[in-house]
Amino acid sequence: GSGDLPPEIWEKVKNHPCYSEEAHHHYARMHVAVAPACNIQCNYCNRKYDCANESRPGVVSEKLTPEQAARKVLAVASTIPQMTVLGIAGPGDPLANPAKTFKTFELISKTAPDIKLCLSTNGLALPDHVDTIARYNIDHVTITINMIDPEIGAQIYPWIFWNHKRYTGVEAAKLLTEHQLRGLEMLTERGILCKINSVMIPGINDKHLVEVNKAVKSRGAFLHNIMPLISAPEHGTVFGLNGQRGPSAQELKALQDSCEGEMNMMRHCRQCRADAVGLLGEDRSAEFTTDKIMEME
Ligand code: CLF
Ligand code: SF4
């Protein structure tokens, strides 16, 4: 049901499988992997794999040009009528590849104007792109925010690259958190719905995420999605190699419960791949490789 949401917000979330728990049973999303580069390094990422911002690390996607991506969206939309949302979530950071990302959105808004556009970013470059995001009618933006304390951030991010320069340590984390929170404020001021993803890393930011929750709630975030660190050495994560464990299901639920307040907590995230297609938890990406799409056309 619509709960207590204002009608204009309900209109934006009712068909979005990530923003509405109810919608995820009925509506599908797809991702196109058009964004290979990244502008930061997370300790839980290995650049060979999809971005763990949003997406499950560990599976290499087929990289697409914006034109290939637009053709794929049309092919999927004609096969899966419940497909309501197109997201760009990697495999790197979409805003570290702004030309490819916005070209893709532009092509899709022309060929499939009914499809809602969704973007997921680490937030470093967000303040520079908020006006473009608004201009392209992107209604949903996810920012991955794992800390608001640069001392904690320095344990998660070894470096960032911004304004032609590499920053490390606390200085890097300070810039990142400033850009993330400013970007969030700028988006919510423009009426763009924002979801915050946080990766729960036991012993690093698990207790701190309650503070993150307060900070993003006060800046108008619509939904908070706390996801477990996927820690597996085969993913090549620094944490994984160092024996960093992910949280147990009970630890994750306890943290989500302690954050549950006026802001909704997302509990149905399936940590999708950067090229995921279908209902959440369903992966039909293998049906829509570039070769198969050429056969369909
Ligand atoms: Fe994709 Fe992300 Fe948009 Fe959804 S996924 S860009 S908001 S359309 Fe959804 Fe997947 Fe969880 Fe992301 S279940 S990983 S929250
Ligand atoms: Fe990897 Fe994503 Fe972090 Fe970039 S933002 S380093 S792609 S997990």
Q: Please, could you describe this protein's structure?
A:
It is a single chain. With 297 residues, the chain is an alpha/beta fold. The relative contact order is 0.17. It has a single domain, classed as TIM Barrel (Alpha-Beta Barrel). The chain contains 10 helices and 11 strands. The N and C termini lie far apart (39 Å). The longest helix is centred in the middle third of the chain and has 21 residues. The protein is globular. Helix 3 links the parallel strand 3 and strand 4. The strands form 2 sheets. Strands 10-9-8-5-4-3-1-11 form an 8-stranded mixed sheet. Strands 2-6-7 form a 3-stranded antiparallel sheet. Helix 2 packs parallel to helix 3. Bound molecules: FE(8)-S(7) cluster and iron/sulfur cluster. FE(8)-S(7) cluster binds next to strand 1, strand 3, strand 4 and strand 5.
DSSP strand (E) fraction?
15-25%
- What value does the Rg take, in angstroms? 18 Å
Bound molecules: FE(8)-S(7) cluster, iron/sulfur cluster
Number of helical segments with 4 or more residues: 10
The CATH architecture can be given as Alpha-Beta Barrel
Shape: globular
Output the CATH topology. TIM Barrel
Number of strands: 11
Overall CATH class: Alpha Beta
Topology order in helix (H) and strand (E) letters: HEEHEHEHEHEEHEHEHHEEH
Biggest β-sheet, characterized?
8 strands, mixed
**Strand numbers in spatial order across the main sheet:** 10-9-8-5-4-3-1-11
Mean residue pLDDT? 88
Please report the distance between the alpha carbons of the first and last residues. Answer: 39 Å
Number of domains: 1
